[in-house]
TrEMBL record:
Protein name per its UniProtKB record: Rhodanese domain-containing protein
Rhodanese domain segment(s): 155-239
Signal sequence, renumbered to the chain: none
InterPro entries reported in the protein's UniProt record: PRTase-like, PRTase_dom, Rhodanese-like_dom
Length: 258
């Protein structure tokens, strides 16, 4: 990216800070896997616990949401960027792309540190289960941001209900992981919104079973359900906090502030 493009990306994200919701560090009341709201008596949400036992540990090593999705412009962007037949799609795309590029440039080092990696070897996008024959719009939008990594294409098993909210070991197919820069495959698996995580974790499971050493799920947004009682407790602080460009959910304080 040229310095002019970098400035435009930053300016775009600065404008979004008016309404973006930051993801705090893990702590009581947050699922230690997915950052969803939970009863503070527990460490994981029921969904993550169930997936963990179904997958017998073959899930993502780390899940990092860049933001929370609650309502407002950001939720709107995440909903509409995929549509090709509505006006304004380009602006939705530009905002989400700027958010991702900025995060990549300023916080991917934090993600790698949290996962114990010096670098990623592969990138993968969670495919669309509703339109498996076409490239996911997120991949079209963000593939240039991970172009130095070896891209993995997962195939979709259309026998599984495309709207399922459950974890499925056989939802995605992959014969083997393509040869990357090193024998070990350390994969960043990218998705737009984490609702239950079942789709992203089903994809992580397939990557692990195909031989990936590490899988880190990076999502643009972790959706929060405001109607859920435990969400209510964390909602106030989240709504009142400002999105800090120099911070992230797994921030490594040795990184320069953005
Ligand atoms: Zn969870
Ligand atoms: Zn960071």
């Amino acid at each position: 990216m040229t310095s002019g493009e970098l400035r435009r990306v930053r300016a775009n994200v600065v404008l979004q800070t008016n309404y973006l919701h930051a993801v705090p560090r893990k702590g009581p009341g947050l699922c230690e896997v997915c950052y969803g709201a939970i009863d503070p008596k527990y460490t994981r949400c029921l969904k993550c616990k169930r997936m963990e036992s179904a997958a017998r540990g073959s899930l993502a090593d780390l899940v990092v949401p860049i933001t929370y999705r609650i309502d407002g412009q950001h939720a709107h962007d995440l909903r509409w960027y995929k549509k090709t037949d509505v006006s304004g799609t380009e602006a939705h795309r530009r905002r989400l792309a700027a958010l991702f590029w900025y995060f990549r440039d300023h916080h991917i080092a934090c993600v790698k540190e949290a996962a114990g990696l010096s670098s990623f070897t592969h990138a993968c996008f969670v495919p669309s289960t509703k339109t498996p024959e076409s490239t996911h719009p997120l991949q079209e939008l963000l593939a240039p941001a991970v172009s130095t990594l070896c891209l993995i294409d997962l195939a979709v098993n259309t026998d599984v209900d495309s709207e399922s909210r459950e974890f499925h070991k056989d939802w995605f197919r992959l014969a083997r992981i393509p040869q990357g820069r090193r024998p070990d495959a350390d994969v960043v698996l990218i998705d737009d919104t984490w609702v239950t995580g079942s789709r992203a974790q089903s994809a992580a499971y397939r990557l692990k079973r195909a031989g990936a050493r590490t899988v880190v799920i990076l999502v643009l947004a972790r959706q929060l359900d405001a109607g859920y009682a435990h969400t209510q407790r964390i909602l106030g602080p989240i709504r009142n906090s400002t999105y800090d460009l120099g911070d992230c959910a797994v921030h490594d304080e040795s990184q320069p502030r953005g």
